[in-house]
Amino acid sequence: MVVFETLSSILMVICSIFGIICAFLFIIIVLTHRQCHTLTILLVFNSTIAGLIANTTCISQAIYQLLDVANDSLCTVRGLFLQAGTGVLYHTLCVQALYRLFVTVYSARRSLQTTRFIILVVVIQWIFSISFGLPILFTGHITYQQGSRICQVSLEDTIGFIYFGSLIFFIPLLMIVYIYFRIVKYMKDNPFSTTNRSTINGQQRHQSELRLIRRILTLVIILFILGFPYFLFYLLIHLHLVSPWSYMPRISYLFITFGQSASMLINLITTDDVKKSLINIIRKCFGKKDPAQHITL
């Protein structure tokens, strides 16, 4: 089992490093390319910041495990960041979905689409994301798990698990799925709305809106599937189908870490302007010219 502990921690480090690299690439490109300074990309930037925090927390936890550091004074704080980090990522995806709802369904209400209003929503989101885990921390629900050497809400702690599970996974997931179907239904019921989709530009915008929502939904599905083992272990324990196993948290966080790093890659390669800028940078590094710059004589 010592081999499994070491391998799982090393895999967490590798996945987290990959996620951090993708996040830094995204952040640098957005900060240095003016064409990326749109509200849509800035909301993805917000999710990337959350992903950077989540991946940094995971790599920190994995390093502590590799160093065999036991229950130190900061263990419960790391446990809070470890579990709440995933929640922050989900919360930022909710903000992205809300913005798409405002742009598509409530397109006539310009006040909901202004930069000032969206920044206010982001600020409220971060206040909630930072504070929602504090009641669990201060009431002592985050405890040191001897077998897995992780401070977290125990799988046997029903109140703590339901509280965290609801605010991290289920409520954000249901909210995003509802918004997605609300937008799709609106587009089907209003094929010739204020976006004038009978024109070429309108049709392109229609496809762009659907593509953006699908990207958000893809991220949520990936994060949910990879976070599902944690929920599954909880059910198996409380239905008395299996006895608690010390390595359940390790397996769960290994899947979660992989999902968080994958979400950073998806942000990088599916955000059109950022992707184009990245391709141009790669071409310049290898001395290749952009084909669009060639003029046929």
TrEMBL record:
The chain crosses the membrane at residues 6-31, 43-67, 87-105, 117-138, 158-181, 216-239, 251-269. PANTHER family: NEUROPEPTIDE RECEPTOR-RELATED G-PROTEIN COUPLED RECEPTOR (PTHR24241), NEUROPEPTIDE SIFAMIDE RECEPTOR (PTHR24241:SF76). It comes from the Eukaryota. This is G-protein coupled receptors family 1 profile domain-containing protein. Residues 22-271 form the G-protein coupled receptors family 1 profile domain. SUPFAM superfamilies: Family A G protein-coupled receptor-like. One of its GO terms (molecular function) is G protein-coupled receptor activity. GO terms for biological process: cellular response to hormone stimulus. The keyword tRNA processing does not apply. It is a multi-pass membrane protein. Its main location: membrane. It is found in: Cell membrane.
